[in-house]
């Protein structure tokens, strides 16, 4: 009688109720070795490679690319091969969240899964829950240590992040042919993109020598694993479409033509954004006040975003009530001495809010470079999960696209967000005459449960005063 084991989708370190299948690295009916990459899953923060918890044949999967899988539900089933390496059940937890086949007394697999995040049935060991996320991708989510496979791992002598491996599959690039420019030979997204752009004749000239790629003869188990990995890599190349955007792999590339008139399930970042925004709308007593900052007296060319950040930090110092967290259940407020600023970043995948830590300590140049780095990491999906949580106040510089005023949404536990509109040239009255001045429209949204209108007005006034300084 064959030994069938079920593998339930673990908490991928995000605390989200589900994740989306990006690509299976093993087909149903194929064999896989323990800890080989099984599937890439997209969450609200990253693309995570999930390793196989067993050695054996893949019998069934929860769905093809684009399928949404509930955390704790069956992701895949395996027919165990006793002749291949297996992990002892008594070993230290490996965070795979796999479970043995359910006994007859267990609920049937087809039973509906609750909307809340369920615990995987019969995991190796329980993980201690981390505190609730304080402001991640446009919202408050929980985090755990269930899976940390988004870190750089070395497979077949190649060290790369999961997002880099995903991009390589998209572009049909063999990572063993790419020279890594990162620390300790880490292959970066730019390395893959640059290699993909090379003509085939040029690629042969930049290949690392064979001696650098092969250290010693591999044992039989490693040879078998390499053979399986090569077979699955070939299958991946056949299954995966070329990414015209040259960005990290996504469930659906930005270049893909949407099916107009057909309902399409939200995935990853957009799916989480929908949940968080709905919750914020129900929880926050949202109020918005607007005004303009006259920047006619600015000396020379200055970075608008850096000035906005400096003005916001100044306002937090003068009116700390808006640089705070509010607990609506217990009616408590926490004022923060530091300004951990959430910067709203629009991307093809949806809205991210990476955090610029200790903005009150940074120089204008450091702020400029820090924000640029955060945006680049968001766009190539290499942003660390730690940089997507813990914001104390947020800034949305939507004016770089269009719009003067807005009512930005405040995401608990934060109590305020500043929106900066498009710089305009306005006619203003000056000593009995009129002049044309450049002005920045500002919108301050705040949770009226946590701060008063007077506190919000004083905060906005402090921002305007700082922005209107010549430099």
Automatic annotation (TrEMBL):
What sequence ranges are listed for the domain Peripheral subunit-binding (PSBD)? Answer: 159-196
Q: Which residues form the Lipoyl-binding domain?
A: 4-79
Any coiled-coil regions, as ranges: none
Q: Return the EC number.
A: 2.3.1.-
Q: Output the Gene3D superfamilies linked to this UniProt entry.
A: 2.40.50.100, Chloramphenicol acetyltransferase-like domain, E3-binding domain
So which cofactors does this thing need? (R)-lipoate
Give a Pfam family name.
Biotin_lipoyl
Enumerate the CDD domains for this protein.
lipoyl_domain
Q: Region labeled Disordered — which residues? A: 86-134
Q: Which GO terms describe its molecular function?
A: acyltransferase activity
Where in the sequence does UniProt note compositional bias of the Low complexity kind? 118-134
What SUPFAM superfamilies does the database record attribute to this sequence? CoA-dependent acyltransferases (SSF52777), Peripheral subunit-binding domain of 2-oxo acid dehydrogenase complex (SSF47005), Single hybrid motif (SSF51230)
Start-end of Pro residues biased regions: 101-117
Q: Which InterPro entries match?
A: 2-oxoA_DH_lipoyl-BS, 2-oxoacid_DH_actylTfrase, 2-oxoacid_DH_E2_comp, Biotin_lipoyl, CAT-like_dom_sf, E3-bd_dom_sf, PSBD, Single_hybrid_motif
Family label: Belongs to the 2-oxoacid dehydrogenase family.
Q: Partners and quaternary state?
A: Forms a 24-polypeptide structural core with octahedral symmetry.
Its name, as the record gives it, is Dihydrolipoamide acetyltransferase component of pyruvate dehydrogenase complex
Which source organism does the UniProt entry give? Aquilutibacter rugosus
Record lineage: Bacteria, Pseudomonadati, Pseudomonadota, Gammaproteobacteria, Lysobacterales
């Amino acid at each position: 009688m064959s030994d069938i084991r079920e593998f339930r989708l673990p908490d991928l370190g995000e605390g989200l109720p589900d994740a989306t299948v990006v690509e299976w690295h093993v087909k149903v009916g194929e064999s896989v070795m323990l800890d080989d990459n099984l599937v890439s899953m997209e969450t609200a923060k990253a693309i995570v490679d999930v390793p196989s918890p067993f050695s054996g044949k893949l019998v069934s999967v929860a769905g093809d690319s684009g399928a949404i899988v509930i955390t704790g539900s069956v992701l895949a089933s395996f027919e165990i091969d006793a002749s291949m390496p297996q992990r002892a059940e008594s070993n230290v937890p490996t965070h795979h969240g796999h479970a043995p086949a359910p006994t007859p007394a267990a609920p049937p697999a087809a039973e509906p899964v609750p909307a809340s995040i369920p615990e995987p049935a019969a995991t190796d060991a329980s993980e201690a829950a981390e505190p609730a996320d304080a402001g991640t991708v446009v919202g408050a989510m929980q985090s755990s240590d269930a899976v940390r496979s988004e870190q750089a791992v070395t497979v077949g002598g190649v060290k790369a992040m999961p997002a880099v491996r995903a991009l390589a599959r998209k572009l049909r690039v063999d990572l063993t042919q790419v020279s890594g420019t990162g620390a300790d030979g880490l292959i970066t997204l730019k390395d893959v993109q640059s290699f993909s752009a090379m003509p085939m004749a040029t690629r042969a000239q930049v290949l690392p020598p064979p001696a650098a790629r092969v250290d010693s003869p591999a044992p039989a188990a490693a040879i078998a694993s390499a053979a399986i990995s090569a077979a699955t890599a070939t299958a991946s190349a056949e299954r995966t479409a070329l990414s015209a955007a040259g960005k990290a792999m996504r469930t659906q590339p930005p270049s893909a033509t949407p099916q107009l008139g057909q309902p399409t399930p939200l995935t990853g970042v957009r799916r989480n954004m929908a949940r968080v925004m709905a919750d914020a709308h129900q929880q926050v007593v949202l109020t918005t006040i607007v005004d303009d900052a006259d920047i006619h007296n600015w000396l020379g060319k200055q970075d608008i975003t850096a000035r906005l950040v400096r003005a916001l930090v100044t306002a937090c110092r003068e009116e700390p009530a808006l640089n705070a967290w509010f607990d609506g259940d217990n009616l408590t407020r926490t004022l923060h001495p530091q300004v951990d600023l959430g910067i709203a970043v629009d991307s093809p995948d949806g809205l991210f809010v990476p955090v610029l830590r200790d903005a009150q300590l940074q120089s204008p140049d450091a702020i400029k470079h820090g924000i640029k780095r955060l945006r680049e990491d968001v766009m190539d999906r290499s942003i660390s999960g730690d940089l997507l949580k813990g914001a104390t106040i947020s800034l949305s510089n939507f004016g770089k696209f269009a719009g003067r005023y807005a009512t930005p949404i405040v995401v608990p536990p934060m109590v305020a967000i500043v929106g900066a509109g498009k710089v305009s040239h306005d006619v203003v009255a000056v000593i009995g005459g009129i002049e044309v001045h450049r002005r920045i429209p500002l919108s301050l949204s705040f949770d009226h449960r946590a701060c008063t209108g007077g506190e919000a007005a004083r905060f906005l006034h402090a921002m305007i005063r700082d922005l209107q300084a010549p430099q």
